[in-house]
Design goal:
Arc Repressor Mutant, subunit A, Rna Polymerase Sigma Factor, Chain: A, 8 helices, mainly alpha
């Protein structure tokens, strides 16, 4: 049986055929560039999920905007730019609306004991003199260095250290 030679259309011809109504031209064009475009999306977004979403957004934009292609650049470059823009849009959106992945690792349990502990510690802290409480809160609870806490409180570093030591000793007695 005789086979006909396969005509390989250029990217520009495939895009023009897509605009003209060829149902398979865009799929062929995307198939030709998909691997390279996905690698680009993956490197740009750092996440497989974001890369998948950005690729979907980009290919939809390219499909819809094919008629607006001006032929002043290669079709591959045009697709590349659309993918980069979709990735950057996705990164901007995710930075504006950060998400936390849901996991089933920690079962939700009774947190009454934690609340009781917080209230007990808070009451004990309130029984400390204000200067001792400020020193222990700044360094031990908020993570300031002794030098930063001293500057914040307007006292010498040695004063912060002695106030913390007295506060800790008193808290030990109050919390038993």
């Amino acid at each position: 049986m005789l086979s006909l030679p396969t005509v390989v259309r250029s990217d520009a011809e495939l895009l023009a055929a897509h605009v003209a109504g060829d149902r398979y031209a865009f799929g062929e064009l995307v198939g030709r560039h998909h691997r390279q475009l996905y690698r680009l999306a993956r490197r740009t977004t750092y996440s497989a999920e974001d890369a998948d979403d950005a690729m979907q957004d980009a290919l939809l934009a390219a499909h819809r905007g094919a008629a607006a292609f001006r032929h002043d650049a290669a079709v591959g470059s045009w697709l590349h730019r659309i993918v980069v823009n979709a990735c950057l849009d996705r990164l901007r959106r995710s930075a504006a609306h950060p998400t936390i992945p849901l996991t089933d690792e920690r079962p939700v349990g009774d947190r009454t004991g934690e609340v009781d502990t917080v209230l007990t510690v808070r009451r004990a802290l309130m029984r400390l003199p204000a200067d001792q409480r400020a020193a222990v809160l700044a360094v031990d609870m908020h993570g300031y260095s002794v030098a930063d806490a001293a500057a914040l409180l307007g006292v010498a570093e040695g004063t912060v250290k002695s106030r913390r030591a007295r506060a800790r000793a008193r808290l030990t007695g109050l919390l038993g």
